[in-house]
């Protein structure tokens, strides 16, 4: 089975964490960063296993950049 690297963007939401894979627009959640990331991995694997190849191709973003910037506040 081939593997591919994906991005996980994780943020706190309430008392837990939400994880997003921007390449496929798949999200999951968990009580910790680690569990949210593990749940996201499982969700992505299930999506890739079950989705029609055309759906995967339609949703796949091949260039995702995560960066930070500063903005004036007030």
From TrEMBL:
Annotated InterPro entries: TA_system_antitoxin, TTHA1013/TTHA0281-like
Origin superkingdom: Bacteria
PANTHER family named in the record: ANTITOXIN HICB (PTHR34504), UPF0150 PROTEIN SSL0259 (PTHR34504:SF2)
Designated name of the protein: HicB-like antitoxin of toxin-antitoxin system domain-containing protein
Organism: Nitrospira moscoviensis
